[in-house]
Amino acid sequence: MTLEIPYVNIAGQHAALKSDLLEAVGSVIEGGQFILGEAVAEFERRFAELCGVRFAVGVNSGTDALIIALRALGIGPGDEVITAPNSFVATASAIALAGARPVFVDVRDDYNLDPDLIESAVTSNTKAILPVHLTGRPADMDPILEVAGRHGLRVIEDAAQAVAAEYRGKRVGSLGDIGCFSLHPLKTLSACGDGGVLTTDDEALFERFGTMRNLGLKTRDNAVNWSGNSRLDSVQAAMLLVKMKYLEEWTEKRRSNAAYHQKALADLPGVRVPADKSFERAVYHAFVIQAEKRDELKAHLESRGIGSAVHYPVPIHLQDAASELGYGPGSFPATEDQAGKILSLPVYAELTGGDLEQISGAIEEFYRG
Description:
Blueprint: H1 10-31, H2 38-51, E1 55-59, H3 62-72, E2 80-83, H4 90-97, E3 101-104, E4 126-130, H5 141-151, E5 154-158, E6 166-167, E7 170-171, E8 178-182, E9 196-200, H6 203-212, E10 217-219, E11 222-223, H7 234-244, H8 247-265, E12 271-272, E13 280-281, E14 287-291, H9 294-303, H10 333-339, E15 342-345, H11 353-368
Parallel strand pairs: 2-3, 2-4, 4-5, 5-8
Antiparallel strand pairs: 1-9, 6-7, 6-13, 8-9, 10-11, 12-14, 14-15
Helix pairs in contact: 1-7, 2-7, 3-4, 8-11
């Protein structure tokens, strides 16, 4: 079924940028510098500036950014990393792929880690806390950092959905020891393929990232550690540089669209909308409501030509891959309750005023009849 208002509209974003993107790709082809070239270095410089950190390192995916971050901190077999059970599976997968054990802690109404529950999950094997800035809203980092400080833990931010989000005036990716970002095509700042970024203020970690993304090579002829190939290529970096010019505009449009949804749906029975906190700048990678009769609402919206999505219907701790961790139904009540109600509405920058009215009107029609 072709939807009048799809949940995402990647083609719509690229239509206005096509000539600039092709020109950027052409410049890389003409220069012949496809791997770790000037475009990558310039993108990393601008991304570090965007996040308010000293260093940024481009890699080939947000998942690899998480794996490299964990390995760079020496986290591996026998170690535990605390994270949220309601994220995309890549967060926990990265911990497992580093050889460590994911340990889950339940979330608040903002879908982010509940800091009050973290300390009880800390053991002698805990090495790090990995908060996820889910939906583009920053996790409550001050109390998380306080727990980490008391126990000597490192903090890795999963900022895959939260580029340019802010917590108490600081950009995500600058709050913990390491920030990890995704440049997947569905992200606000997206590659035309895949990519990721690591951020840090720690020069030693920065140097480790550089070798670990490039087969452990310190020089062309000397590998200082065993590692894989996770380089962000120059073609993607060149296109990302084009898109970075529009990131703030797109972000503010998403925030404006989110504010419209918040106002339009605020008093609707059966719907709970997210509410921004005074100390955060949420960037709304996803605008997630909690809806009674969620599946019926989703079907109703589709019948009216409106796309929506569920992020994510099965919490990580209830997926087959997590069975060995020993969790089960009831382990994380908030996460499990939300999983049956959450629905992501279109919020992308290309939505028109008419689109927004159509979305809210269809939801009101469902609940009020």
